[in-house]
Structure formats: C-alpha cells, structure tokens
Amino acid sequence: MQYNVLATDARQQVVALTVEAANETFAANQARAQGLTVVSIEPTGIRWTLPRRQPRFQTMLFSTELVSLLDAGLNLVEALQTLAEKERRSEGQQVLSAILAAIHRGEPFSQAVAAQPRHFSTLYVATIKAAERSGNVREALGRYISYQEEIDRVKKKIVSASIYPAILMGVGGLVLAFLMFYVVPRFSKVYEDTAGTLPFFSKLLMTFGNFVGNNVIVLGLAFAGLIGGALYAASRADVRAWLNVQIWRIPALGSRMKVYQLARLYRTASMLLRAGIPAVRALEMVQGLLAAHLRPALSKARTLIEQGQAMSAALGAVGLATPVAARMMVVGERTGDMGQMLAQIARFHDDEVARTIEWFTKAFEPVLMAVLGLAIGGVVVLMYMPIFELAGSIR
C-alpha cells in the first residue's frame, strides 16, 4: 500500500514523498532510513473499510516462549530472532522487529520493551530492568509469568462463578418481559368485560396489561432512552467512580472487594521486591492497581516507610494490612525475605476470596432460581386465576 509521508530533512526543509509499505510503521521506518524526520503519514486515496479491533501483542505467550528458548541454551538475541522468524501476525512482527532493532543499537532489553508501552506494562519493564543488574532475565520472566498466572486464576474463578447466574438472570428476565409485555396485554383484552369481578391482584395485573397495550410506542422509546442513558453514564469515569464507591459501602461486599484488592497489592509488590526493587519504589509502582479511594492510604504508607517505619507497621497504620497479613509481614521482616512472605500472604487471601465466591455461588443460584420461578409462576397464576374461579363456579 502507498503512503504520503510529510517529513523534514537535516536542513529542516519540508520533504513530501510517497512510499510503498505494508503499514504506517514500516512507511515511517523507510523515511527515517533516508535520514528524515517524519511529521505525518497518510494513506493515498480513500479506503472504505469497516472498523475492526486492532490485534494486540500476546505478552504472556511471548514471555513463556522466550523462557523456553532461554532454558534451551539460546542467548537473548538468538531467542528473539527465533520468535521473530516464527511469528506470522503483523502486530507481533512489528513488536519483535522493534525490540531486536533496539538491542542491535546497543539498548538494554528493558529499554527495548519500554519503548512498546502498549504491549508491555510498567511492572513488566521494571522487573526486567531490575533483573538486568544481576544478569538473570530468565528468572525475572519466570516470576512475571507466575504472577500473571495467579492473577488470571483468580479472575477465571470470578468469571466462571458469574456465568451461570448471569445466564439465568438473562433468560428469566426475557421470559418475564415476554409475559408482562406481550402475553398479559392480550389477556387483559379477554377480561375487559369481566373487569369488575376479577380478583384484586389479577385486576392490577390486567390494568398493567391495558396500560402497556395502549402505550407501546411511548414505553419502547422510554426503554430505549433508559438503555442509552445507562450506556452514556457507564462511559463516564466520574459515574463509574461514584458507583464503585457505593458498591464498596455495602458492608459484606465491600470487605471482600478490599481483600481482593489487597491480594493484588501484596502479589505485585512481592514480584517487584523479589526482583530487587526497593520497597518504596515498589509500592509507588503498584499504586495504580488499587481502587481510587485506597490510593491516598498507600501514599501515606510510603511516607511512613521513608520515615523509617517497617512495612508491616506502615501498611497496618493506614488500613492496608489485614490481621493475618500484618502478622505474616512481621515474620517476613524478621527473616529478611519480605518478597516471598508477601507472595504467601497474597495466596492466602486469594484462597479466601475463592472460598467466598464458591460459597456465594452455591447460595445465590438456588435463591435466584426461586425468585425467578415465583415471579414467572405468580404472573401465570394471576392470569389464569379468573378461569380457575369460573370453572369452580360452574361445578
């Protein structure tokens, strides 16, 4: 494909040229190879294509394969070249080519991946950078893989536990909506002449059916407006933050969510400490993982650590250490292996969260089925109650 490139040369004169390349990145590389500074790149002509999701580089797969090649005895450059040769996706080829080019220019591996912030997180870069001091990049990658696997394990438990209730609520809601907005309005027309003799609750149901039948368009527009308003509200960061705070205020749910957040904090801090990053810097890097209202407490804890307090005392003073975590951190400070101890604390709390999810799922599913069954059954009984009474009077 052809691209129009606007650039400046060494004398700061504007140069316009057309290059043939697979994408904009390769077009920019061709211009830079000629000693030009790229100002803008635009494809020639107009392309009418449907928007599609930009493929992302699979960082976990890359790390796992890189560790396997390093274990096989290849050095870092050979391993990266091997991965680049086997890569078939254009996104992966671009990322690996950029990393190899940076290493060939003499840049360290951490700096090469740091130049790809879309694919490599700050934690990933910091772990690699700390490992380069000791020359053990393979161990750092292994720690990151283990960390990500633990995070994914908890996420999968949460998702798998919520799938069945979500399906049940969706199907039950559709059945209930079909009865209330389609079946009931038609039954209400059948009972129009006998409205005065209907039971009280059946009369209320039929009144609702008449209202729906007479205002279908208005109710449809109102429902569409409600959905649109909900989607707009969900797209606003301030609304999401407000909803998050309200959910955290629910006593039973808020405490469980805090334990889950603290488990992420301990696990990430553990990985960074084991990589050789100082405690204050590690806590600063993991601050973005916490909920917004917990971040000021973590900042205060960092200040206390800088003033000479132990990590267990600092986190406990600001409410970011559970009783179990505080006790175990004291042991970690005594043995001098806080990184390993934080990993054990995170595993303990992850198991606690998993048990809570399992208990909630087992208790919530029968309750949800009973509520939906009573709602649907109640609507059906109220619709047919006049028929049952009529049959009884005939006998």
Describe this structure in words.
The longest helix is centred in the last third of the chain and has 57 residues. It contains 16 helices and 3 strands. It is extended, with a radius of gyration of 31 Å. 73% of the residues lie in helices and 5% in strands. With 395 residues, it is mostly helical. About 2% of the residues have low confidence. It has a 3-stranded antiparallel β-sheet with strand order 2-1-3, covered by helices on one side. Helix 2 runs antiparallel to helix 7 and helix 8 crosses helix 16. The termini are far apart. Strand 1 and strand 2 form a beta hairpin. The protein has 3 domains: 42 residues; 89 residues, Type II secretion system (T2SS), domain F (Receptor-associated Protein, Up-down Bundle); 216 residues, Type II secretion system (T2SS), domain F (Receptor-associated Protein, Up-down Bundle).
